[in-house]
Amino acid sequence: MILAFLLEGRSEKEMLKGLLPRLLPPDVQVEYAVFEGKQDLKRQMKRHLSGWRTPNTVFIVMCDQDSSDCLKLKAELVERCPQAKQDHVIVRIICRELESWYFGDLAAVENALNVPNLIQYQKKRKYRIPDRIHSPASELEKITGGAYHKISGSREIGSRLSPNSNTSGSFQVFIDSIQEMIKGWDPKIEEQDTEDTEGSPSSVDERPHCP
């Protein structure tokens, strides 16, 4: 089985490289396609998905919500999935930014960046619901005294994030998606040919996961 991630930036890749080995069985291969921001992802994802010919592949499209309407953004990305690939695509919107997930586990951030007493911020009303923090990247940089940088920080934090105790709702939906997909995967079933899947009902994961 191959998990192919389509990501809006490099920081997501660095985080996943640390997180996924603790979630996936050893026979699952992971591939990453990193784009230059959300607009580049939107522009290229259909061509990228259409051109993929390797069987037994599940695609996971991930991007930040930022200031967008979560459900509208997700619907837009779903519409860009080729019909023939839709049975094999999961779209996940990170509410609101990748750093929201880090606010959901400040113990991991504290350990990764060696900044003491960060976990105390998790009790503050402003940070209690990570997916509702305005500009979480800026907030994380502020409370770490500038120790957090998007790429290097994501590399260190990803390997320390707890899959089970994160308080970000969108993080938990992402984890659930991965676990359900692995549990339900039948390695004997190969991806159907394009002509067999054209016109089939879409099973793109449509669950909303923004609060």
UniProtKB/TrEMBL annotation:
Quick one: where's region Disordered?
A: 185-211
Pfam families per the record?
A: DUF4276 (PF14103)
Q: Which InterPro entries match?
A: DUF4276 (IPR025455)
Know the name of this protein? DUF4276 family protein
- The organism named in the record is Candidatus Synechococcus spongiarum LMB bulk15N
